[in-house]
Amino acid sequence: MKISILADDLTGANDSGVQIVKYGLTPIVIIQDTFQKQKEDIYIYNTDSRTLTGERSYNKIFEYCNKIEDSDDRVIYKKIDSTMRGSIGQEVNALYDYFCPDFVIIAPGHPSNGRKIVNKMLYLNNTLLHETEVAQDPKTPVFYSDINKIIMEQSQRKVAHIYLEDLKKGKEKIWNILKDCKENNINHITVDSVEDHHLKEIVEHIKSSPYSVIWAGSAGLIYHIPNAYGYMENTSTMSPIPESVRSALFVIGSMSKNGREQLQQLLQNSNVIGLEMQSTKIIDTSDTRKKEFNRIISESKYAVENGYHLALFSSSDAEKAVEKGKEIGLSRIEVSDLISYYLGKIADDLIIKFQIDRLFLTGGDTAFQVMKNLGVETFQLMDEIEPGVPVGLLQTNKTIYTVTKAGNFGGDTVMNKALASLKGGLKKEADID
């Protein structure tokens, strides 16, 4: 099986790609456009398009389609955010217009990770999506819970829906829905899912149909794709990560409530020193910014020399930073981008200065900035330490074992688990007390 994955941010590229590793496949996440593709049949492209407007998002996805070799045995997967952030409707439009399949199947649910869809409505940890912090996202707020409505408004095309009741009736019912959609020129179809087996069923039913499809979903859906195409899950585990005597570096760019709670758990670890980057100083004058850089480097030097691990994170005073940005003519999104950029820049300085070889990155923008600034061309996925929290290899002038995590993913202790894994051998969630 050949598969190409297009993801709108880096952590999404990673948490979807690692699902394929479980089948003994070796996906490669492409970080830089300069990378020359080799023999691998599974490439994951980070289009970095989540915050783009609809038209720009469409154009960027259409451009990336040119990089994909179209063939009868190639599966095309559009990784979308499980909380529906971004211009998903326009991105699936671009894929449909370029490749001309019969349908694009849109299934953002990830039940085992708290994303459930019932009668078109998306629930995040049992709360309607529009009632969660996703509605206040500084870059890509989502104001509806109805996934069908979101895709319809963004794509400006007709969108059908497959309900749980349809799934319960089996393959024949699903095939009849597809037949009706084909006859009525409906090409986009959203799907309910309350349990993981619902995603498995939709993949099996549609794969066995006479229609061609492009899949669009979260890490939950893609897990079931290889099996439907004849691959068996590999139950063997990867070799432990070698021990390292150097300090590990955590870079926390996500402002999500869940991510901040995980950070607080990490900072309670007596072996970890917190390095809080003051966001208002970063977007101030160059002199103020330089002083903030120097302070963080100085505190890092003390921590490393005394055997501590480092946790670099931006301050939580987001609104103050936005107000400061307004004074110099910056929009909310530009302030957020600037904070991610400098958090990444400081992280890269620390990695080089202290020869960091164990790394944890959370927040797609921040993770991308760190890898891009290091000049890394690819990220080789290895395994995951918790559902949706992958570990892999970055190759610079040395090997850097790296864990990445979307802001809202993971349990309360995921960062401490990541530290234990990075320092002394990879352990699965069930193996860590």
Automatic annotation (TrEMBL):
Residues 4-224 form the Four-carbon acid sugar kinase N-terminal domain. Keywords: ATP-binding, Carbohydrate metabolism, Kinase, Nucleotide-binding, Transferase. The keyword Kinase applies. It holds the Pfam family NBD_C. GO terms for molecular function: ATP binding; kinase activity. Residues 249-414 form the Four-carbon acid sugar kinase nucleotide binding domain. Belongs to the four-carbon acid sugar kinase family. This is Four-carbon acid sugar kinase family protein.
